[in-house]
Design goal:
By secondary structure, this protein is mainly alpha-helical. About 65% of the residues lie in helices and about 5% in strands.
C-alpha cells in the first residue's frame, strides 16, 4: 500500500518570492552577526598584541644566571602571565569562532545552495549560477 503524494506545482512568482524571502533572511542574519564578530575580532587582536608586547618584555628581562628559574621569572612578570591567561581564556571560550560567525554561516549556506545552482556573496545576497550541463 503505497500512497503517492502529488508534487506541488509552484508558479514562477511564488518561487521568486521564496527566494527573495530567503535572501532577506540571510542578509538580516549577516547584518546582525557582523558587528558582534567585529567586536570579537578587535578583542582578539588587542589581546594578541598585548601578549606579543608583554612576551617581548618578558624575554628581554630574563637574566641568565646560575639561579635561573622559569617559575620565579614568570612570577616576577605578572603582566605577561595575565595577558597570556586572558588570551587562553578567550580561545577556550570560543572567541576565535565568534569572530568568524558570519563567515561560518555564509559558507554553510553556500554549501547547501550549491545543490540549487545558487550561491551568496559576503553580504548574503543570492547569486544565481548557470546550470551545468
Amino acid at each position: 500500500m503505497t500512497s503517492v503524494h502529488p508534487t506541488p506545482q509552484f508558479t514562477t512568482q511564488q518561487i521568486q518570492e521564496d527566494l527573495r524571502a530567503f535572501e532577506r533572511r540571510i542578509t538580516k542574519t549577516v547584518e546582525y552577526l557582523e558587528p558582534k564578530s567585529y567586536r570579537w575580532r578587535i578583542l582578539l587582536f588587542i589581546s594578541v598584541i598585548f601578549v606579543m608586547i608583554s612576551g617581548y618584555n618578558f624575554i628581554t628581562s630574563i637574566k641568565l644566571d646560575r639561579d635561573f628559574s622559569i617559575l620565579s621569572t614568570l612570577y616576577n612578570d605578572k603582566i605577561f602571565i595575565f595577558a597570556l591567561m586572558f588570551l587562553l581564556l578567550l580561545i577556550v571560550t570560543g572567541a576565535h569562532k565568534r569572530a568568524n560567525t558570519s563567515a561560518i554561516i555564509l559558507s554553510r549556506n553556500r554549501q547547501v545552495l550549491l545543490d540549487y545552482n545558487l550561491s551568496c556573496n559576503e553580504k548574503g545576497k543570492l547569486i544565481i549560477k548557470p546550470k551545468a550541463d
